[in-house]
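Submission checklist for the structure archive. All mandatory fields must be present; incomplete records are returned to the submitter.

[x] Identifier: Large ribosomal subunit protein bL9
[x] Organism: Collinsella tanakaei YIT 12063
[x] Residue count: 171
[x] Sequence attached
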Amino acid sequence: MKVVLLGEIKGKGGEGDVVDVAQGYAENYLFPKKLAVAATKGNLKQLEERRNNIEKREAVRIADANTLKETLEGKSVVVDAKVGDEGVLFGSVTSAMIADAVKAQLGVELDRKRIELGKPIKMAGSHEVAVSLYREIRATLTVLVGVTADEEVEEEAVEETAEAETEAAAE
């Protein structure tokens, strides 16, 4: 069944896109939540009339996503968690905790659903986390769990020294 999307739906498309979906998905989810309308001749004609406005809104969304990417890219966020023996956490760090830490430390409001964590973090240390901002625009964020940024720099310096000593010993 062909439908016209009225907003962005992850994995399907953005506002104004005409996509083919299952009839049950359209009738039971998209239509009741007003996320799409059926792709009839009348709705397609209205879509063409609104195309200019949709393109303007799309350009604004992309610009906002790019500025947010510049703000987040390469930044690190510290998440406090209780760490047990061998760096294993008591519990785990979830995307909601990361979103709260980003808001508190960087002053940026993120939806927890946009944080692509895969599975919760259960080990202390530094973890790279992708944040989906809009369509294909993604930012990479470093999440420090159970350590502060100063400790992380010290650990990296110790690791580099150890690697240099190992290389010197090998020669």
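[x] Structure attached
Curator remark: The two ends are 67 Å apart (CA to CA). The longest helix spans residues 41-72.
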